[in-house]
Design goal:
Layout lengths: L12 H13 L22 E5 L2 E4 L4 E4 L14 H13 L8 H13 L5 E5 L2 H16 L3 E5 L26 E4 L4 H10 L4 E6 L17 H12 L2 E5 L12 H5 L5 E4 L10 E5 L4 H6 L10 H16 L2 H22 L4 E4 L6 E4 L6 H11 L3 E2 L14 H23 L7
Helix pairs in contact: 2-9, 3-9, 5-6, 10-12, 11-12
The structure holds pyridoxal-5'-phosphate.
Pyridoxal-5'-phosphate (PLP) binds next to helix 4.
């Protein structure tokens, strides 16, 4: 729908009221990465009512074409029939009991065969469970303490990877954490030289996706250099593929970028919304992996495992990676064309399946806030400060509809610029 008058634009009254109630009984109301404080208040939805395919409806009855995909987990479409059928069949048998189901072994075998690096697979619930587990496995394997990370990373909420300044984090939590810049091989060499013999692992995402900033792909040869440094120094190389996993390559995003880590962490998309994560690794690390103490009340639940097996098989069957790349390219090139037409330069960053967009003269991201809010009021969910996600459920008609929303939103954004109602540089 295009050319909506102001009266036809969505309103978010119930979302806003619910958030006020939540703020009284839930610390932060809605916390963490989905907190509404990252968006213009009152111009984005806060609560979901119903979801299906690539669309969802909020509690005010507004429908959105979704480009956040639950921040990654939705990859085949909400309520995908193949996944739901597998989950339901398992639910009828058993879910959370005293033992795992046979499905745990089937899923591990399937992932071992699917992912070239994987000789073994360990399951949990969240991505952060696995990034912490991977660093502990690296320490157990090398008998060393230090872990190298990349500045601006996100590996979850454990104290070792949460920035000092957040509640409860102490400098001691980071005693054995070293930091290098993304794409900086010389910086990595320096740190490795300084702490030779003390470094257990290097953990990084396959490409760099800091919040608020442009996404940065690896420079040619970067990962191959990292890999050879790690091999020479006996450092365990960990690929945190929690965000990108199964959107760039079914065998892990490292296959897309041409390197072989020792450990890979997956979560988000692997169960199409069911709570499950995995760490896979090479056989040399299996003994160390078995010595790490890691478990949880819900880690052996069988339903998410059945959902994950169905999700992975379906993604492969339909070649979802290719479809997401195609739909993402259509969306991003369409947005760029619209921006150019209105004289507002747009920078696209990251892979098409997990893209992000910045206005080129918008250092404080005001234009992004205005643009994404105006898109949201017309029926597409584009996040102003977090990268976006495509799914295999997005079709050309959905992208075209979003581009219509974007056309209207760009007009409004341009109007702000022309009236000098917002500073651009
Ligand atoms: C790259 C990366 N690693 C780890 C995590 C943590 O995953 P979870 O929120 O499931 O614990 C995330 C979550 O966004 C992520 O993007």
């Amino acid at each position: 729908m295009t050319n909506k008058s102001r009266e036809q634009l969505y309103n978010f009254q119930k979302s806003t009221e619910l958030f006020s109630r939540a703020a009284e009984v839930i610390p932060g109301g809605i916390y963490g990465h989905i907190s509404p404080i990252l968006m213009v208040p009152g111009l984005f939805p806060n609560y979901t009512y119903h979801a299906e395919g690539c669309r969802y409806t909020d509690v005010d009855g507004n429908e959105f074409i979704d480009y956040e995909c639950a921040y990654g987990p939705m990859i085949l479409g909400y309520k995908h029939p193949v996944v739901e059928e597998a989950a339901e069949a398992q639910r009828k048998l058993a879910d959370c009991t005293n033992h795992p189901g046979e499905i745990m072994v089937e899923l591990a075998e399937y992932m071992r065969d699917l992912i070239p690096v994987a000789d073994w697979v360990f399951f949990a619930k969240n991505g952060g469970d696995m990034t912490t587990y991977a660093t502990l496995t690296a320490r157990a394997h090398t008998n060393r303490k230090k872990i190298i990370t990349v500045r601006g990373h996100y590996h979850g909420i454990a104290p070792w990877c949460t920035a000092i300044g957040h509640g409860g984090i102490t400098p001691e939590d980071h005693l054995n954490i070293l930091t290098v810049e993304w794409n900086d091989i010389e910086g990595l060499r320096k740190v490795v030289k300084k702490y030779r013999g003390e470094i257990a692992g290097f953990i990084a995402t396959p490409y760099h996706h800091p919040t608020f900033k442009e996404q940065v792909m690896p420079l040619p040869g970067y990962w191959q250099e990292v890999e050879s440094i790690c091999r020479e120094e006996g450092i365990v190389l960990i690929s945190d593929d929690v965000r990108a996993g199964f959107r760039l390559h079914m065998g892990g995003s490292n296959e897309y970028f041409g390197f072989k880590p020792d450990l890979i962490c997956f979560s988000k998309a692997m169960g199409n919304g069911y709570a499950i994560s995995a760490c896979v690794g090479q056989k040399e690390l299996m003994n160390a992996a078995s010595k790490v103490f890691a478990t949880g009340s819900f880690w052996f639940s069988a339903v998410p495992m059945a959902a994950a097996l169905a999700t992975l098989k379906e993604l492969k069957r339909i070649n979802a990676v290719e479809k997401m790349e195609k739909m993402g390219s259509m969306l991003m090139n369409g947005l760029k064309e619209i921006g150019n037409r209105y004289g507002l330069g747009i920078t696209i960053s990251g892979p098409y399946a997990i893209p992000f967009m910045h206005f080129t003269r918008d250092p404080n991201m005001y234009l992004s806030q205005i643009f994404c809010a105006e898109v949201s009021r017309r029926g597409s969910l584009l996040h102003p400060s977090h990268n976006w996600f495509l799914s295999a459920a997005h079709e050309e008609k959905d992208i075209n509809e979003t581009l219509n929303h974007a056309e209207e939103a760009m007009k409004v954004t341009k109007d702000y610029v022309d009236r000098k109602a917002v500073a651009t540089f």
